[in-house]
Design a protein that fits this description.
heterodimer, A: 2 strands, B: alpha/beta, 7 helices
């Protein structure tokens, strides 16, 4: 974790540098269980994102 | 009274930490039921897209929020981001810059923020210096590799498997090594989250006056201290908090 200011500075750095985190799985919220099971089984590389629909 | 912000239609990301929360680690029993999710991006009612800063400090606290003894992390006291509507103190909603997607912004609040603080606030590294990241595939490690590369550091990574080391190279590592391997030269700073399995190697990897920044101890919290090396080479050991609760086995 870090401070609010560090988060704001991180976001600016990411925007300007062009680096982006690796997203392993991007699924709708209703599939959260599938996402958790995939994470527990180590089936994904990168972040799992759940999106409200 | 604090101003709280409402946001809707959020994206949020999950790390392994939430599995620990589901098992009751790092959260007091009387706090349940608790909505999971520390990270997230949402839209305020005025249309502004914002990233959630999950460190909620006392309204009276000024300065570094992470040092407030009364601060909580989202899901410890206040409800988390796995919801259609999320409410956080207004200062915990940080504008999402143009050009960064909601999905990418949604993973910034914990692992990436931890890595940013370790690298740019704690380590004292300057562009051109060499950093070693112990562990190739974790959320903080991968963020350290990408941030360090983008900032002009020479980035070395150790990883247990060929697959993990290949991931580190793909993300920008200049050199990768098997865990515990002899390195071609000493480094300026080491980034630790592994603990007992790598700590001795981390201290031996440092040049005189170098620093080890530690945010976790997944393999165990009590390695040999190697104190003679610490004082003889004037090494610096710097702690930096990751996310989980005090009793969590991953912190």
């Amino acid at each position: 974790m870090g401070t609010r200011q560090e988060l704001a500075d991180l976001l600016t750095f990411v925007a300007q540098s062009g680096i982006r985190p690796q997203i392993g799985l991007d699924v709708p919220m209703r599939d959260a269980e599938t996402a958790f099971r995939a994470m527990e089984a180590g089936e994904t590389t990168g972040k799992i994102v759940l999106t409200a629909t | 009274m604090v101003n709280w912000s409402f946001m809707r239609r959020p994206s949020r990301s999950e790390g392994r930490l939430r599995l620990w929360t589901l098992r009751g680690v790092g959260i007091k029993a009387e706090r349940f039921p608790m909505i999971l999710g520390m990270d997230g991006v949402g839209t305020l009612y005025d249309g502004t897209q914002v990233v959630v800063h999950p460190v909620v400090s006392d309204p009276a606290w000024t300065g570094d929020e992470t040092l407030d003894p009364r601060r909580t992390l989202l899901t410890e006291l206040h409800q988390g981001t796995f919801a259609d509507y999320v409410v956080v103190p207004a200062r915990n909603a940080v504008p999402l810059p143009d050009g960064v997607s909601a999905a990418h912004g949604a993973v910034m609040g914990t692992a990436w923020l931890t890595a940013y603080r370790m690298l740019f606030t704690k380590s004292g590294l300057r562009p051109g210096q060499t950093m070693l990241v112990q562990g190739a595939s974790g959320g903080v490690s991968t963020a350290l590799v990408q941030l360090g590369r983008a900032a002009g550091m020479t980035v070395w990574v150790t990883g247990r498997s060929e697959e993990k080391r290949a991931l580190a190279e793909k993300l920008g590592a200049h050199r990768v090594f098997p865990t515990g391997a002899k390195l071609p030269s000493r480094v300026d700073a080491v980034f630790e989250s592994v603990g007992e399995a790598t700590w001795g190697h981390s201290l031996r990897a440092l040049r005189p006056g170098g620093a080890v920044i530690v945010c976790g101890s997944t393999s165990g919290p009590n390695p040999g201290a190697d104190l003679q090396r610490v004082f003889f080479l004037q090494l610096r050991v710097e702690g930096s908090r990751w996310a989980p609760g005090r009793n969590s086995p991953i912190c």
